[in-house]
Amino acid sequence: MNSELLRRSCTLMGAALVAASAWGTSEPETTPEERGEEPLPLGELITLLNQLMVGGKIVDAYQTTVPGLVEFHLEDGDLFFATDDGRYLFTGEVYERVGKNSLVNLTDTRRQERFFRLVDPNSSISFRPEGETVAVAYVFTDYTCGYCRALHKNIDNYLSRGIEIRYLAYPRGGKQTQVYQDMVSIWCADDPKDAMTEAKRGREFARAFCAHPVDVHMKLGGLMGVRGTPTIVLDNGRTFPGLVRAKRLLQEASP
User: Fold this and answer.
1) Average confidence score pLDDT of the chain
2) How far is it, in rounded angstroms, from Cα 159 to Cα 130?
3) 93 versus 18: which is more confidently predicted?
4) Do 3-106 and 122-252 come out as alike in CATH topology?
5) Using one digit for the tens of pLDDT, what is the confidence trace for 152-194?
6) What is the domain class of 122-252 according to CATH?
7) 162, 251 in Cβ contact below 8 A?
8) CATH topology of domain 3-106
9) Beta bridge partners of 165
10) For residue 14, pLDDT beyond 70
11) How many CB atoms lie within 10 A of CB 113?
C-alpha cells in the first residue's frame, strides 16, 4: 500500500469512525485497555504501521494533545493519525477548542514547527533587503510559473519593505521533467541569484550540476501541502498559496 492508497483508506476509516461516533453503535464505547489492547510503545507502533507502507516510510511521530492519538509524518510530507494501540488510522486535521468560540488547528501548528526545524536557510536562494530585515518569506517557486515571475519582477517592492525572500525549489511537474533539471542548474550555478533572475526573465542560463537541495525542498513542499507555486511561508508560520503583494505580506508578517 503506498501513501496515496493509505490516505484514501485512512480517510474512509476516519469517516466511519466519525459516523459511528455521531450515530452510536450497538456496543458501548470502550477504551483500548478495556478491550485488552494496551497502548504500544512508540517504536513498536512505528514498526507495525511501517508494514503498511510501500515507498513511503514514517520519519517522525508525535503524541498529540488528544489522549491516545499519535501523529505520523511520512517521507513525502503526508501525515496521518493512529490510536496508540494501532487499531484505528485516519487522515485529516486536529483542532482544539480554546475558550467558547475559538479553534486552533493543532495539525497546522505541528506542520509549521516541523518545517522550520527542517528547512536550511543556507539552502535557499536569498534576496535580502539592504537595510533592516523585518520579515522573512520562504517562497516555493518554479521558474516557469507566471505568478512566480511576477513576484520576482517586483522583488524590489518586497525588499524595500524589509522582507527577505528565500526561494525554495518546487518544480511543479516533479522530478521527471526538464524544469526539475533546470532548477538543479539554477541552484548549482556560480551565481544562483543571477541564474534565478535570468531564468524568470525567460533568458538562457548556464547548465550545471552539484550536490543540490531541490529534492529536500520538494519534500518540504509536500509537508506544507504545496499544490502550486508560488506558495509563501512567513517566519511567523502563516502560509499563503499564490501571489501576495508586498504591502499585504508585510501586514501578515506582523505578530
Assistant:
1) 85
2) 7
3) 93
4) no
5) 999 999 999 999 999 999 999 999 999 999 999 999 999 999 9
6) alpha beta
7) no
8) Nuclear Transport Factor 2; Chain: A, (3.10.450)
9) 127, 137
10) no
11) 12
